[in-house]
Fold each of these.
Amino acid sequence: MGGKTLTRADLAEAVFKKVGLPRNESAEIVELVLREIVSSLERGDQVKLSSFGSFGIREKGERIGRNPKTGQEVPITPRRVLVFRASNIMKQRINDSLSGNSSGE
């Protein structure tokens, strides 16, 4: 399951190639989209991207954990965690690509 990691620069390059905007504008668009997603999540809003998935924030309460090395109990503070749920379409595309049934674009 090795592979390349998709970066912001890769996204900007894809926008540049497919849309034809200058590279600096393509990078700016990618940054604006990512910034808007982060801002929405910071406000506690859910972000749904059709055919991709949804991002949300989950509140986790305080609990007691255990240090795996020493076995000592330690409190874990309450926090907010980012959760992602892939859409059924995304799950199907990923599973199809494993079996070679990819319907390329």
Amino acid sequence: MSTLPSCPKCTSAYTYEDGNHLVCPECAHEWVPGSESDSQEDQKVVKDANGNVLNDGDTVTIIKDLKVKGSSSVLKIGTRVKNIRLVEGDHDIDCKIDGFGAMKLKSEFVKKV
């Protein structure tokens, strides 16, 4: 009896072979045995304007005055944003700014504190 490796995404032991791929029935992740780059491909690296890697929960500062769409107000340079959350898409930072509420920002307009 051959033992198959655990799923690299959810570490489930119930993997099975499907042709030359391995499949996890719990999270539906498919991979080719021997490819170690699977976990790195799934995670997108988000960097600020200076090239620093951003993580969930970081505090950032806005580096440029940003017009708020649909409003006459402006987010001023130097505004500090706490506890950011990284999301998929063009605007890859989801946050809550005091005085403005929930916002989505582009990582190119912030720097890590």
Amino acid sequence: MSSSDSLARGVPPGEPGTLHARTLSGDLTAPPTPGRTVRFGRGEKPDTDLGVGVDDRWVSRQHGELTYRAGSWWLRNTGQQLVRLPRGRMMHGSSAPIPLPTGYTPLFVKGSGHREHLVELYVADHDDRGPVASRRAETVRPQRWALGEDERLLLVVLGRHYLEYEPDPRPLTYGRAVEQLAYLRPESGWTVRRIEYRVEAVRRRLHGTGFKYPLIHDRPEERPSDNSLLHNLLKGLVESTTLVPPDLNLLDDDLDWPETH
């Protein structure tokens, strides 16, 4: 059903619970009618309402469906391949349906090779005119965190591979970081113990500030390694653009450091 079809039925696109869906192949708008089901996949109408991955045989003809009931749109995977949701959540054909929150939800249908096919979903809330209304609004700036001069240098040294946007980056070891810092700031007296202290201080300061990833141990009896928490710290700082590639200018470009993770 197109947006014009929705309006013809007397249902404004922004009515609470209205579903907007879009893929590379098309888009639709569906009113919040109890029992209404929207199907997406590789197939054609009338079996599929919204095409996705239409040239990819790894995508099922009916790969997923959204049904409106109990005041929500419930998503179910009806295909053979996984569906990936935000925060890495996966849905299999045997997974229980989940309700979509209001607002924007992207999902990805696993295809052939490295292909993933995007399905964009938007559920209107109260006083919401839909995703189009945001086009004229001011851009929301990413949340960035303040870092001291020494902290920034230390984190750039530890997170060089993150700032180079390498796949699956890992922090530099504290021992290697001491070597680089000794060259860059020989008067600062960096040691492994001092690095551990400064990294922990940053983690504790940013914990509870809305940082995207865990920065402290939740359960002492099930403690992840400090390296995992450092990975979370560096990943979050780079994704928030608190640390950016120009920060690599703090390092000496003439240095030929071994690529050690």
Amino acid sequence: MGLPPSVNAAIQASLLSGLSNYLAQILAAWKANRPFELAIAPIFRFFIFTLITTPPNYKWQAFLERTFPTYTTASLRESKKTDDLDMKEKAGPLSPTVPGTAEPGRIDKGNILRKLLLDQCCGGPINTALFIIGMGLLNGNPWEQIQWNIARDFWKFQCAGWKLWPMVALISFSVVPFERRVLFGSLVSLGWTIYLSLLIGEV
């Protein structure tokens, strides 16, 4: 029996996150013109953080697709398929037929826009706050320091994210099959995590 799709997504995303930090370390050493010395701790922190946060993000994507399916044809069947995600997670990997992707029909641009707005106005800021909090906890920082980091860094990170992630989300919601969206986002995150690693000094 295979692993549930959210677990597969978490493993894939975590490996890519760790790889991103490794590449960021190489880039930082090159920019500073110093010999490269591998630091395992920041790689481990990025790996663990991504492993923890990917399953909820997978559920979030399932909620968005169930509530606002990309394709409107056979919407009742699509809704049922998405409602059955938890059952399929317990039973095994998702089949290629997933909500809003395999059914032929008209693309609902209104639903795509609704998903985009919800994802960027709700999901994005929550993920930004969780990143600052999670990395602070994994670094062993006291809560007072984490609160100060949120006040200092939240809008800087969020505004930087809004320059990239709305376009990524638009592509994902429009043309990427549901079961591939987390992986697609993780591949984009390869570069994004390098940026974050350099920004917060986790190299």
